[in-house]
Amino acid sequence: MTRICIFHPNLGIGGAERLIIEIALSLKRQKHSITIFTNYHDKAHCFSESKDKLNVNCVFSWIPDSIFGGFKVYLAAFKTLLLTLYFILFYINEFDFVIVDQISVVSVPLLRTLNKTVVFYCHFPDQFLTERKSLIKKIYRIPIDWFEIFCIGLANKILVNSKFTLKVLTSFEKINDKYKRHENWIKIIYPCVRMNIPQNHCDISPYVPDETKYLFVSINRFNPMKLIQRILIGMQQLNADIDDEIWNQTHCVIMGGCDPVS
């Protein structure tokens, strides 16, 4: 039995959280010991498995996510620092290795300094998830952007969910140079969740015309940050680029859930 710790910043309801739950349950089914360490876990707003089937250790949840709507990335790094120090002080000898999810800053270098094996799951580099429209924002992001890539580069192993994410990650020279020397350093995990379809699965056939030959499916939470409108813009552009015969055989289905809290 391997003793595995998983770091995740916010164990709420979302795609990243669902993935972490699936990873933890899968490892648990293989008889490994699993504990999730997080900065936030509201038992009234989370996946049921995180309450009933998994060991979750939540600390420093009282620290805000932002100050007057700003400094989010630095507060996230600060909370990760506190979480990592808490783990080092009280639990480090109880685990064989650590899976760090989403936020590499601080936790990866500290754990590696103490000779802990670290697997980093990279959904997408954080610095690509924000805009820099002002000079102040550009200056604000410089330290954390550099430090993010530095920290990612220290992980023993990096996991990504697609060739696209791999391409984006290796666009950084430091990451690409190491990847060229050690191709097994970064591994694509796809699919990253169970693919068996439950009996009560959603049948979308009533929503798809019989003449459909080319089907596009977009699955996301209905949340403004997901920019679901981009699929509509893409379909509009596709309509302009193909002839009417093909367009009449093309259909798009947009589906997903809505979490009123997030």
TrEMBL record:
Natural source organism: Henneguya salminicola
Keyword Repressor belongs to the record: no
Topology with respect to the bilayer: Single-pass membrane protein
Keywords assigned by UniProt, alphabetized: Endoplasmic reticulum, Glycosyltransferase, Membrane, Transferase, Transmembrane, Transmembrane helix
Reactions it catalyzes: an alpha-D-Man-(1->3)-beta-D-Man-(1->4)-beta-D-GlcNAc-(1->4)-alpha-D-GlcNAc-diphospho-di-trans,poly-cis-dolichol + GDP-alpha-D-mannose = an alpha-D-Man-(1->3)-[alpha-D-Man-(1->6)]-beta-D-Man-(1->4)-beta-D-GlcNAc-(1->4)-alpha-D-GlcNAc-diphospho-di-trans,poly-cis-dolichol + GDP + H(+); a beta-D-Man-(1->4)-beta-D-GlcNAc-(1->4)-alpha-D-GlcNAc-diphospho-di-trans,poly-cis-dolichol + GDP-alpha-D-mannose = an alpha-D-Man-(1->3)-beta-D-Man-(1->4)-beta-D-GlcNAc-(1->4)-alpha-D-GlcNAc-diphospho-di-trans,poly-cis-dolichol + GDP + H(+)
Primary localisation category: endoplasmic reticulum
GO cellular component, one term: endoplasmic reticulum membrane
Parts forming coiled coils: none
A GO molecular-function annotation: GDP-Man:Man(1)GlcNAc(2)-PP-Dol alpha-1,3-mannosyltransferase activity
Residue span(s) of domain Glycosyltransferase subfamily 4-like N-terminal: 13-172
Function summary: Mannosylates Man(2)GlcNAc(2)-dolichol diphosphate and Man(1)GlcNAc(2)-dolichol diphosphate to form Man(3)GlcNAc(2)-dolichol diphosphate.
The name this protein goes by in its record: Alpha-1,3/1,6-mannosyltransferase ALG2
Pathway: Protein modification; protein glycosylation
Pfam families in the record: Glyco_transf_4
